[in-house]
């Protein structure tokens, strides 16, 4: 799945994949080290689930945009991801079509929020 997502993201000239994690612990560590603008987070990560990893990332890196992703359309997964700070939630079935758009929208929203906060 990661290779497929990498291919999708790499197909857009304005996006660059800077890292990949095999589990939630590694994802949190990579964000600490790489400080990416956007994280695409699988909620079903081993060692530490994506919801907890997202919570930790957003606690220490509030400006990092996290987009949740899941194989299953779980009943409350979107609600839980958004509660810990995810900007968007996609199922893997829709990711191919919607991922780039979700990244662009989340970054645009984050920049608008930052600009508003700077004016206040």
Structural notes for this entry:
The longest helix has 28 residues, at 92-119. The mean pLDDT is 81. Helix 1 (2-10) crosses helix 5 (92-119) and helix 2 (24-34) runs parallel beside helix 3. This protein has a single domain (2-119), classed as 3-Layer(aba) Sandwich (Rossmann fold). By secondary structure, the chain is α/β, with parallel strands linked by helices. Strands 1-2-3 form a three-stranded parallel beta sheet, with helices on both faces. It has five helices and three strands; from the N terminus they run ααβαβαβα. The chain has helices at residues 2-10, 24-34, 50-60, 77-83, 92-119; strands spanning 38-42, 65-70, 88-91.
What structural category arises from helix and sheet content?
Answer: alpha/beta
CATH topology-level fold name: Rossmann fold
Straight-line N-to-C gap: 42 Å
Biggest sheet overview: 3 strands, parallel
Number of helices: 5
CATH H-tier superfamily = Response regulator
List the helices and strands and how they pair.
Layout: H1 2-10, H2 24-34, E1 38-42, H3 50-60, E2 65-70, H4 77-83, E3 88-91, H5 92-119
Parallel strand pairs: 1-2, 2-3
Helix pairs in contact: 1-5, 2-3
Question: What's a concise summary of this model?
Answer:
The chain is of the alpha/beta class and 120 residues long. Helix content is 55%, strand content 12%. The chain has helices spanning 2-10, 24-34, 50-60, 77-83, 92-119; strands spanning 38-42, 65-70, 88-91.
């Amino acid at each position: 799945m990661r290779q497929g997502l990498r291919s999708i993201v790499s197909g857009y000239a304005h996006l660059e994949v800077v890292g990949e994690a095999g589990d939630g612990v590694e994802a949190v560590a990579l964000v600490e080290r790489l400080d990416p603008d956007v994280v695409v987070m699988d909620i079903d990560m081993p060692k530490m689930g994506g919801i907890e990893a997202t919570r930790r990332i957003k606690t220490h890196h509030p400006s990092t945009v996290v987009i949740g992703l899941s194989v299953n359309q779980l009943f409350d997964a979107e609600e839980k991801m958004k509660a810990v700070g995810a900007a968007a939630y996609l199922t893997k079935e829709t990711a191919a079509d919607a991922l780039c758009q979700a990244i662009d929208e989340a970054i645009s929203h984050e920049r608008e929020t930052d600009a508003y906060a700077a004016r206040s």
